[in-house]
Write a structure and sequence with these properties.
The protein contains eleven helices and 17 strands. With 387 residues, the chain is an alpha+beta fold. It folds into three domains: 104 residues, Gcn5-related N-acetyltransferase (GNAT) (Aminopeptidase); 146 residues, 3-Layer(aba) Sandwich (Aminopeptidase); 92 residues, Nonspecific Lipid-transfer Protein, Chain A, CATH 3.30.1050. The strands form two sheets. Strands 1, 2, 3, 4, 5, 6, 7, 8, 9, 10, 11 and 12 form a twelve-stranded mixed beta sheet that branches. A five-stranded mixed beta sheet has the order 15-14-13-16-17. A hairpin with a 5-residue loop joins β8 and β9. α2 runs antiparallel to α6. It comes from Candidatus Companilactobacillus pullicola. InterPro entries: Acetyltransf_17 (IPR041380), Acetyltransferase_Eis (IPR051554), Acyl_CoA_acyltransferase (IPR016181), Eis_dom (IPR025559), SCP2_sterol-bd_dom_sf (IPR036527). One of its GO terms (molecular function) is aminoglycoside N-acetyltransferase activity. Keywords: Acyltransferase, Transferase.
Length: 387
């Protein structure tokens, strides 16, 4: 067992460090929600003179990446007490957590950065963006009443299993496959949220939105539609709050919000914001099960620079009849070279290899770069969850 892993009897120390490090106030709900995460995570900590000096969560989850399920550990609450900061404690725990992930056959890791530069040194890279749209109540578009279907409004604690299945069926771009405990954790954490459910005339759930309000703003947290009818029903539901709230905000996991579909695109204040980072922990597993976009590829040698020794190799990649053949090719001349961070961007579809080569982040044979780029998905990933 890793010497940095904390046990159940050290929860209070970890929770106290969290409250102090992030300037949070203790409450019954906060403690309960934090304990839920603690009980389902690998919890790392370093003791310093009898006190917990640094800590972090490594949360075992699973993600769906274009139809392929991968184990993913979310890193959260990376912290150090100020009197112990600057001595590499958090960095030591990050490296230990990554080593344990590999040992436990975890392929990927996500985190929300306080500093992109800090986490890049551990192999993480920007992979997820959000698009935020804000519209004043006086600028909301006109939506006709739907002639079919209906909307049901419920408290977040009452969301049905069919909503959870609808989310799961539409989560295929790198988002979390929410396990029961994760759903329960989210609902407890956001107990003040509400949900609106869109049904067709046959009482089949065709869409939903999860929302909350703060001050005089209506916030849409999550919105899934199966067809135009659900979009019409739920959009009309939102607009019917026009007299209650001054502004409406939707933070979408889709970095391309498609503002052109609005009647007046100028009515919306749109901005794309960086959201979370990703890290390939086990490159061999990620690539061998990857949803490749071509059926054949002549052998390419690519050298990956990584602080994780099991990824830091020259690799030989061939694709025959849709089957990936990947092997260690150390000692062979590489057709191209790149870092694990750059490869993460390309494999996640965040930016293709050709573009990355234009910025000098991939070096080598431009033809080989072009061929390898076609192997990877081109759609940007989407992630709603936060940890």
């Amino acid at each position: 067992m890793n010497k940095y892993l904390l046990g159940e009897n050290e929860f209070d120390k970890f929770y106290d460090l969290y409250l102090y490090s992030f300037n949070r106030q203790d409450s019954e709900q906060r403690r309960r929600v934090f304990k839920e995460r603690y009980d389902h995570s690998l919890v790392y900590g370093i003791m310093n003179r009898g006190k917990l000096g640094s800590g972090l969560f490594s949360i075992p989850l699973e993600v769906n990446f274009h139809g392929v399920d991968y184990k993913m550990n979310g890193i959260g609450d990376v912290m150090s007490a100020p009197e112990f900061g600057g001595h590499g404690g958090a960095g030591t725990l990050m490296n230990e957590a990554l080593f344990d992930m590999y040992k436990n056959h975890v392929t990927l890791s996500y985190l929300a950065p306080f500093s992109f530069g800090y986490y890049r040194q551990f192999g993480f890279e920007q992979a997820f963006d959000h698009t935020q749209i804000e519209i004043k109540n006086t600028d909301l578009p006109r939506i006709k009443n739907a002639s079919h279907g209906y909307v049901e409004r419920i408290a977040i604690k009452d969301i049905p299993d069919e909503l959870k299945k609808l989310y799961l069926d539409n989560n295929n771009q790198g988002g979390v496959n929410r396990a029961k405990w994760w759903w329960d954790h989210m609902l407890d954490k956001h107990s003040d949220y509400r949900a609106a459910l869109a049904y067709d005339d046959d009482n089949v759930l065709i869409g939903y939105l999860i929302y909350y309000d703060q001050d005089q703003t209506f916030y849409i947290h999550e919105w899934i539609n199966l067809n135009p009818l659900s979009r019409q029903l739920l959009a009309k539901f939102v607009i019917k709050h026009q007299s209650i709230f001054l502004s409406f905000v939707y933070e979408s996991a889709d970095p391309d919000f498609k503002a052109d579909i609005l009647e007046n695109p100028y009515s919306a204040n749109l901005k794309v914001t960086p959201y979370m980072m990703a890290r390939i922990v086990d490159l061999e597993d990620f690539l061998k099960r990857y949803p490749i976009q071509v059926n054949s590829l002549e052998k390419i040698y690519f050298k990956v620079k990584d602080t994780l020794e099991w990824n830091d190799h020259t690799w030989a990649l061939t694709i025959n009849d849709g089957k990936v053949e990947l092997s260690n090719a150390d000692g062979e001349g590489a057709d191209l070279e790149l870092t694990i961070q750059t490869l993460t961007k390309a494999m996640f579809g965040y930016r293709d290899l050709n573009s990355l080569a234009d910025y000098g982040l991939v070096k080598g044979d431009l033809t080989k770069i072009k061929h390898l780029s076609k192997v990877f998905v081109s759609e940007k990933p989407q992630l709603i969850d936060y940890f």
